[in-house]
Amino acid sequence: MRPLEQSDPRSVGRFRILARAGSGGMAVVYLGRSAGGRAVAVKMMHAEFVDDPEHRARFHREVAATRAVGGLYGPGLLDADTGGRRPWMATEFVPGVSLRDAVRWFGPLPPGAARVLAAGLVEALTLIHRAGYAHLDLKPANVLLTGDGPRVIDFGIAQDSRAGAPVAGGPAGSRGFMSPEQEAGAVTGPPSDIYSLGATLAFACTGEPPGDGLAAVPDEGLRAVIAACLRPDPASRPDLRELAGALAPEPPAAWPPPIQDEIHRHIAEIENPPTAPPVPPAARRWVLLLSGAGVLVACLGGGAVGTSLFLKDDAHPKEDARETGSASPTPRRTASASPAARSRVLEIRLDGDVRLTSLTYTINGRTTTLRNVALPWKVAVDVPKYPPPAAWRIRYRHPTGEVGYHVFVDRILAGAGSKGGGTSGGGQGNS
Q: Residue 57: phi, psi to the nearest 5?
């Protein structure tokens, strides 16, 4: 959770905006509160996408899917406006920690908790498919571990499973967790979610996407379930009814204590959100001067910047990480989205022919370290409008090979570097 920035709205629809909960490639998520005091998550499209019909259509589909399937196993939709200047939707705010972060910070789930997770996700997918949708982006970052079980979030690429059509625009999803047919851009549907379920459970039990490490899953029955879900042929994968039968009811197991503590931390943050600093008097005079003169200032500095902020949950004090290879929309500049009226979108992309053993980047004094990063990898985030510039630094290590990075500010190249034959690289600057 982060304080509001000066360019952030203080109210959206009938909801008061309290803090920034996260940001991603297409939208920013705020912690809000209704007039009755209910905590809500308000997801608002980035300003640079509002004139793009494709992004508007995607946001509209996400709202429709959330409305259809939200509830017991996902965030319920409270309100939305997809036709306004800045499309937004409001859902209940679910305090929890993503499965991705829980495993990275505290290690793989013990067998009892892993079975609770598996059974809960099967129940969630049953409701999603019954509503006529395939999620198509089930992965550890989109699974929240909450006090009352797992929740599935982010229906940004959900598809009407009754249509039986390929995903628009080709493959979409996250490498390592999408099905083979999805990665190939072929026809997708509920069986694709079954594959993603197996990949997600493999990560929960081993800390890695599926591969040759299924033998490390300690629960033999759960190992068999995962292997069945990961069959390459969609027709040979089990359906949800079979999976529910294989995951016979057992005495409920609680999340490990560190995960429970993290959930309680999120609950406390909702009740005590960070407050935005007041606008300095000098800054207020500068804003008044610009507005009175009718001046439009557009400043873009050189260099690069990036941070890992997500639509699902806030950064942990130890680390702020994203799944390697996760796909996200590329920011787009439009004439109507001026830096004087919004924050900037900065994106870091890394490509290469090796897997990074470590990736560390520091943004304005905040450091993030990732391990075992598969390439290509990228992250996009809103940063305050210019000035002041944001200081950045990138460092990575890898086996001998070639790795390069590119940094964009509102889709304009702001920094790049590459190195072949070495085992480390990086760069630094200001944007």
A: -65, -40
Peptide bond into 387 cis (omega under 30): yes
pTM above 0.90, yes or no: no
* Chosen domain end from 77, 93, 109: 93
Using an 8 Å Cβ cutoff, are 352 and 397 in contact?
A: no
pLDDT single digits (tens) 20-50: 998 877 899 999 999 888 899 999 999 889 9
Q: Give the closest residue to 321 by CA, choosing from 400, 260, 374.
A: 374
Same domain, 180 and 201: yes
Provide the pLDDT for residue 259.
94
CATH number of the domain where residue 39 is located: 3.30.200.20
Q: Out of 8, 101, 137, 193, which one is annotated catalytic?
A: 137
pLDDT at 372 over 90: no
DSSP 395: E
Q: Is there a catalytic annotation at residue 193?
A: no
Amino acid at 218: P
Tell me how many domains the chain contains: 3
pLDDT in tens, 297-351: 333 333 333 333 333 333 343 333 334 333 333 333 333 333 333 567 667 888 8
